[in-house]
Amino acid sequence: MKIKINKKGNINRLMRYLGYHPDKYQDPEEPSFSRPLRGDKFPRFHIYYQPKKDQLNLHLDQKPPRYSSAIDHGAEYDGKLVRKEAERIKKELQ
Fold first, then answer.
1. What is the pLDDT of residue 35?
2. Cα(78)–Cα(86) distance, rounded to whole angstroms?
3. Contact between 86 and 1 (Cβ < 8 Å)
4. Mind listing the pLDDT tens digit for each residue in 41-92?
5. Whole-angstrom distance, CA of residue 48 vs CA of residue 65
6. Are 34 and 47 in contact (CB under 8 A)?
7. Could you tell me the residue range of the domain that residue 80 belongs to?
8. Distances, alpha carbon 72 to alpha carbons 5, 12, 13, 76, in Å
9. Is residue 18, in this structure, part of any structural domain at all?
10. Is the peptide bond before 43 cis (omega within 30 degrees of 0)?
């Protein structure tokens, strides 16, 4: 789910404010952040920041990839939890 943001400033600070932590391996062109739903790594909300579009791309990772070379990870890009989290983020960014 895509979320347009209008706040300028440090994206790392903004994401920490929203409860997200930077992922260990970052793509400088599209940094990513995550927030676990529970105390474990998965399921987790996962956000990619797209600076050229000034938007966040949110999805819910249900489980890790089965294989280290795989990119399939059981993500949900829509659904009740994703919509609820998107609304929370939009409210915080007002």
1. 96
2. 10
3. yes
4. 899 999 999 999 999 999 999 887 766 555 555 789 999 999 999 999 999 9
5. 17
6. yes
7. 2-64+74-92
8. 27, 26, 29, 11
9. yes
10. yes
- Per DSSP, the three-state class of 89 is helix
pTM for this prediction: 0.86
Is 69 a domain residue?
Answer: no
Cα separation, 68 vs 22, in Å, equals: 20
What is the total residue count of the chain? 94
CA distance readout (Å), 45 to 41, 58, 70: 10, 7, 19
Query: Is position 32 within any domain?
Result: yes
Write out the two tokens for 78. Answer: 């829509």
Q: Tokens for 28? A: 């400088």
